[in-house]
Amino acid sequence: MCRWLAYSGSPLLLEEMLYKPDHSLIDQSRHARLGVDTTNGDGFGVGWYGAGDVPGLLRSVSPAWSDRNLRELATHVSSPLFMAHVRSSTGTPVQQTNCHPFRYERWLWMHNGSIARFATLRRDLMLAVGPEFFPAIEGSTDSELMFVLALTLGLRDDPPGAVARMVGIVEAAALRHGVADPVQMTVATSDGSTVWAFRYSTRHQSRSLFYSTETRCLRMLHPEIPMLRLVSDESRLIVSEPLVDLPGAWNEMPESAYSVIADGRDEIRPFRPEPPS
């Protein structure tokens, strides 16, 4: 499937998370440890928030480990909130419009997982997309369709509720078509100030997802690491798999849960799909 990370906190050069850690996202694009696939070479993307009204976005079908433009960008762009993704296709074409993150206005969205028998369910799900958001669909992935469905269902006002309703619609469509265990997802989405991350699967056997320990605690545990002195107490990471093998640095996201990361407010709450009425 895929690997991704979401960072929020003190402004950092992208390379600090994409390239420098021992098991960085770029390393994971070739040597993933916890994913279904070891290699995630079907494209990549990075989205970051800066001075503009909408987040910057770079997406490519190149493998992340060999893309010179990504390497150049990562050494020059600094951001307080960015998301990055390396893709392993689950069947849809390798093309730029199918690379994550996906963007709509100030919102970014990325996903690891799949909708089972997506070709069977796709028409029903497409018909549930609101007219306002239908023109935003550029690619052919289940991940992008999940995003526009969540937008249709109120993502901009109530992200947890919108994602719960989106999953409810997918599972209801699967029930109508006799598709078992339709949803497998770890999702991150952001409006530029808050990050929401979800871990859920219909079978309750979800793909891996981890969040970093509070920076203040990490400084006490590992005073020998210079970078921990450069970032604020509010700095956080959510990752498909740990970037470094550092005792006490990572915590597994609970099954069927979502996290909220914002200035002064980090929470983990239970996640339950909301069936359509």
From TrEMBL:
The keyword Cell membrane does not apply. Keywords: Glutamine amidotransferase. Residues 2-242 form the Glutamine amidotransferase type-2 domain. The keyword Protease does not apply. Pfam families: GATase_4. PROSITE patterns: GATASE_TYPE_2 (PS51278). This is Class II glutamine amidotransferase.
